[in-house]
Amino acid sequence: MSLNFFMQNLINALQWGSFYALIALGYSMVYSILMLFNFAHGDIFMVGAYIGLGVSLLLLKIVGTGAAALVPGWLVLVVTILISMFLTAFVGIIVERVGYRPLRDAPRASAAITGLMIGIILETANILFLGGQRLAFPQLIQSHTYNIGGVFITNKKIMIVIVSIGLMIALHQFVTRTRWGMAMRAMAYDFVVVPLVGVPLNTIAVMTFAIGSALAAAAGILFGLAYPVLDPYMGVSFGWKAFVAAILGGRGSIMGACLAGFMLGFIEIMTVPGIQILNRLFALNIGSNLRDLIAYSIVLAILVFRPHGLFGEPYSAKLRL
Amino acid sequence: MALLRVEHMTHYFGGLRAVSDYNLEMEPGQILGLIGPNGAGKTTVFNLLTGIYRPSEGRILLDGEDITGLAPHRIAARGLGRTFQNLCLWRHMTVLDHVRMAHYAKISYGLLGAFFGTAERYRQEAEIERRSRELLELVGIGHLADQGVLNLPYGAQRRVEMARALAVEPKVLFLDEPTVGMTPEELSQMMNIIRQLHERLGLAIFLIEHRLKMVMELCHRIQTLVFGEVIAEGTPAEIQGNPQVIEAYLGKETVE
């Protein structure tokens, strides 16, 4: 495998991993404070992508397209991301308020299936209102391909990776530097003492859902830019894979969720050239459609050796950095 | 006017009456003891007063204001601080972080302040850190401020809880068995700390304790709770001489 070829796949893996990482963060944050995985999170990613679609179409209608546009495409994109993150945060808040808060003292299994049901409701609502056909995501920025020493990089890929990493850094700052972030870390340990030092539990829980959902919305829009076809079930398999990343990273670990997201992207992308190399070396005939089978077997193997995930700790699932 | 006043507080867990017709008058600067056999409902009284449970009946007044049924974080903000019988610490945070966290309600800089590091943020953070270290000094663990709480000996962990409870600037400090499981040396240190808190901060302290010697030495007044009912209330001397108390409580245990 030439270095160029490796670099090319590495760039692709970084982009692909960005999506996983951004979504995995939402799973991990909610888990750390409520001790349950919000299984609706994959569908919130889908909702975020659709909200992004709606917002961007609306903005394009206002400012115009092509040469007649009042503002450049990248500005539309930035505004779209910000507005969609804001709106999707409210979806997350509603999910917490309607689905999780009433069940906070219920058995964890009941609260867990809440997420599944909300997910199904969101998918069905999408089909009901939008008819269920695939929709094209508008290409807000012109695609350029740069040839850097034989490695082809598009401006979109660079942007996606930079925006994702920027959001992760912002989240890290939030958790370390604000009183709310600190309260999230403390709330990961108990629900009893934290309010007794003056922290309103519900506010923090709502914030966690809002932030997780906003990050998922960002992932949805970036995904729409890279793969401009949205369908109501896009959140299902993507959500599950990001969930795998959240576990692989170690439950409740922010750093873990990010790194595991990128790692998962890397494993998935690299499996295909891996298969080709194996085929050539041993004269085999493995189809690249076995990608996920092989990629997730590798993940399984990692978990066998590190059952608590990369940054996980035994008996602890607390929000860490 | 009483600092903390409880009128006819009753609480049911399902059909079980855990606390019945509990009354309390606590003056500023008073050290009050709550004693009683295991399962008498002492911790339940604390949980009711700090808002973890909402009383089925009755009223709780702090400084003349009705705080019955308020959310725990609001009650804390009005001036009740508390420690726990079994330690409730945030295992991966440092000692200093525990006390800093308890300043939550006093932080007023927002998101922008946090991200861009405004002067206001630095001022507030510096003030909180200074106060936190002061409180840690007060309970005698100033030198452990930057340690993780997991590494500390038991006695020091208890003091972290105390410093954290003090950080909310309570009018009344609730201590739920602060000496349980302590060595005799740690015990006498803890008694000194409680005395100091009382003298230096003029704090009213409500103490649940099993070591009767300590209760008798520290407290101005003592309530005896048996099966959720106060069977006797009075000065240490009165309680020691009360035949009902002796029968219900002292008679069954050896006095240290």
Give structural notes.
The complex is a heterodimer of chains A (321) and B (256). Chain A has a two-stranded antiparallel sheet with strand order 1-4. A two-stranded antiparallel sheet of chain A has the order 2-3. In chain A, 71% of the residues lie in helices and 4% in strands. The longest helix of chain A has 32 residues, at 3-34. By secondary structure, chain A is mainly α. Chain A has a domain at 15-234. Chain B is an alpha/beta fold. Chain B is built from 10 helices and 10 strands. Chain B has helices spanning 42-49, 72-79, 95-101, 111-116, 119-138, 154-167, 184-201, 212-218, 236-241, 243-248; strands spanning 4-13, 16-26, 31-35, 57-62, 65-66, 80-82, 172-176, 204-208, 221-226, 229-234. In chain B, helix 3 runs parallel beside helix 6 and helix 5 crosses helix 6 (154-167). The relative contact order of chain B is 0.18. Classes of the chains: A mainly alpha (321), B alpha/beta (256). Chains A and B meet through helix 5, helix 6 and helix 7 of A and helix 2, strand 6, helix 3, helix 4 and helix 6 of B.
How many separate structural domains of chain B? Answer: 1
Q: What is the percentage of strand-forming residues of chain A?
A: under 5%
Compute the CA-based radius of gyration of chain A: 20 Å
The average pLDDT value of chain A, as a whole number, equals 88
**Given the helix and strand composition of chain A, which structural class is it?**
mainly alpha
| CATH architectural category of chain B | 3-Layer(aba) Sandwich
Shape of chain A: globular
Through-space gap between termini of chain A: 36 Å
Describe the global form of chain B: globular
The largest pleated sheet of chain B is described as:
6 strands, mixed
- What is the CATH H-level superfamily of chain B? P-loop containing nucleotide triphosphate hydrolases
Q: Report mean pLDDT of chain B, rounded to a whole number.
A: 87
Distance between the termini of chain B: 36 Å
The low-confidence runs of chain A, each spanning 5 or more residues with pLDDT under 50, are none
Please list the strands of the largest sheet of chain B in the order they lie side by side.
Answer: 6-7-8-3-9-10
